[in-house]
Design goal:
Blueprint (H helix, E strand, L loop, with lengths): L6 E6 L6 H13 L3 E6 L1 H5 L7 H12 L7 H4 L10 E7 L1 H8 L6 H10 L5 E7 L7 H8 L4 E3 L2 E3 L9 E3 L4 H9 L14
Parallel strand pairs: 1-2, 1-3, 3-4, 4-5
Antiparallel strand pairs: 4-7, 6-7
Helix pairs in contact: 1-3, 5-7
């Protein structure tokens, strides 16, 4: 098991169309021995969509990890002082979360978890999922790629014809990215031809 003994924070934000795939990757991380504590954004904990109900997503994370997801800013704050995680994964990471993180805004449980974890100079793995990754969020992605302790799951355009600005991480490379990040390395190649 590649993650035996690793304490892993698993932050889930509101790219609801990718949540099913993200949950499957959380299962793989748990199967590799990681002790996972889930953190969910307000969008995930409160918003029912055509992709699923908020309570069902939180329940599924609880089943996989054995832990109740952190759903408030107050409950995410102790992550930093307690040094709760060896590594933190943000999947999916929406454009909204990317923009706020790149600009130092901390107004959701997800962002508080990331900020609290980064203060300990420990790795954060981001699996991007945004329709404006090659639009307004391109500069925020560039900022984060050049930020110490941040590693990206390799990503590419998921639908270049219909959604030319959209970027999505190759979620099947999450485990390898986590293992590399634990060694202080970025999994390469970072930019892939297509995410699908």
């Amino acid at each position: 098991m590649r993650l035996e003994g690793i304490r892993l924070g698993f932050v889930v934000t509101g790219s609801h169309c990718t949540l099913k795939e993200v949950i499957a990757e959380a299962e793989k991380l748990a199967a590799e021995g990681a002790e996972i504590i889930p953190v969910v954004s307000f969008a995930v904990s409160n918003m029912d969509t055509r992709f699923g109900k908020a309570a069902d997503w939180c329940s599924r994370l609880n089943e996989i990890t054995g832990k109740t997801p952190i759903t408030s800013i107050e409950d995410a704050e102790p992550i930093g002082p307690g040094k709760l995680f060896d590594i933190l994964v943000v999947a999916p990471c929406t454009g909204n979360t990317l923009a706020k993180l790149a600009n130092g805004i901390t107004d959701t449980p997800a962002l508080m978890a990331i900020k609290a974890h980064l203060r300990n100079q420990r790795p954060v793995v981001i699996a991007v999922a945004t329709n404006d990754g090659l639009g307004l969020n391109a500069r925020n992605i560039a900022t984060l790629i050049n930020t110490k302790y941040i590693y990206m799951v390799p990503f590419g355009q998921d639908n270049p014809i219909a959604k030319p600005n959209s970027l999505v991480a190759r979620l099947d490379q999450m485990l390898d990215t986590v293992c590399c990040a634990l060694e202080g390395k970025q999994l390469q190649p970072l930019l892939i031809q297509s995410a699908k």
